[in-house]
Each structure stands twice: as C-alpha cells, then as structure tokens.
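Lecture 7 notes: from sequence to structure.
We start with the chain below.
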Amino acid sequence: MLHFFLMKPHSRVAVITGAGSGIGKSVALALLREGYSVAFAGRRTDALAAAAAEAGAAPERTLVVATDVAQPDSVRNLFAKTVEKFGRVDLLFNNAGTGAPGVPLEDLTLEQWKAVVDTILTGAFLCTQEAIRIMKRQQPRGGRIINNGSISAHVPRPNTAPYTAAKHAITGLTKSTSLDGRKHDIACGQIDIGNAATILTSKMAQGVPQADGSLAVEPTIDPEHVARAVVYMATLPLDVNVPFVTVMANKMPYIGRG
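Predicted structure tokens for the same chain:
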C-alpha cells in the first residue's frame, strides 16, 4: 500500500510561489501535466487564477492562494490551505522574487533593499520552514524543496546589489536546508537560471549593462526549458538529489571574461 501511494501520479502536491507568470507559471503548468496537484501562490489573485485556468486541469487539482511571502501569517495561510485541500506537501518551489532600481549601491534606499531581500530571501526562508514542518510529520514523510537561485547567485550584474546579495544568500539557504532536511527525508536543491524569457528579461533585447560599462543584447531561453529541469529534479526519488543545476542561454556572456 505504501508503494502504491508513492507512485500514484495524482497523490503528489506542489506549492509554487510567484506562480502567476514567468518561470513560476511555466513550472506550475509543467507539474500539473506531470500529474501533480498544484497550489498557485503569488500576490495577484487574477494572474494566479488565469494561470490555473490555462492549465485546464480539474478544479480539485489546483488551488489559488493570494500570498505575500514576506509576511509570516500569509505564508502560514498558504500552507494551511494547501494541506486542507490536498492533505500534504511533496514539493515547494521557492520562486517568488523582485528587483530594485538599477542605481549605484550608495543611492539605494533601505526600503528598496528590504523589498528585495524580504521577498527573495526571507520569503524563501518562511516557506521552507512551513514546508519542513509539514513534510517531516506527514505520511509518507519527506519531500523536496527547490530554490530559484539565478546566475546572480554566482556573479553580479552592475548595480544589482540587493538582488545579487539575496540570491547569494539563497545558495546558503539551499545548502543548510539540504543538510538539515536529511534526517526528515527532505531533499533540497537549487536551479540557477540565465535569462529565461519573461517580462523581467524583456529589456535583454534592447541591451543590458555589462561589467565593462557597455550595453549588450543578451539571448534568452523559453521558460519551458527551466520547467523541464524542475520537473526532472522534482520527480527523483527522495534518496537522490540534484544540489545545483544551471540552465542558461548557450550564448550568454557569462562563462568567460567580462
């Protein structure tokens, strides 16, 4: 009976933050196609509902929860509603993020800094806490957490201190979660993405600042390639983990001297 429960396609449940558009939406739709039930979380209920409707999945397999990941009460509500409807959480994709104006570091306001760090880092921390609390007590126990790290978790772009700092910190959170989750059969990995084609990367076609001060057009990739990588990570058995994977446009000016 335990083996059947683990293998039953519709028994798996995913929580996706930032699921109303871009990478989060692509991952949510891909997981639904894979047989997951999915909780769509994000700030804009209309965008979340539209994304869930686009999937064409049965209503009993989708849940829309307006969520501000930087607020503990909002995060608790997200996971409580997920468990109420689906009974468990097998996967958390920490994807919610935002950026700050591209101004010199010394000109950033504290509010601009906090808006980025609170969403990307504190949000991932709060969601991870709630996921672990559920995963370690559910039966069968365990689950998987995947963090959206970004290439900015490794190298910065000019004038991106809050985003880069938060994404570097996500790498530390991934490592700590992976280590601390082992005893509960919880795996944690990170996907670092280079220029998925979303609203946030639309300016790539006009040129973006490079390390040498120039502007350069950068290639992008379809978010579906990212979604396929997340699905691969998500569907591994819990005794297997992909700690880090990078998915990027092949001709990005990332590997090499800038």
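Points to note: The first helix runs from residue 2 to 7. The CA atoms of residues 54 and 96 lie 20 Å apart.
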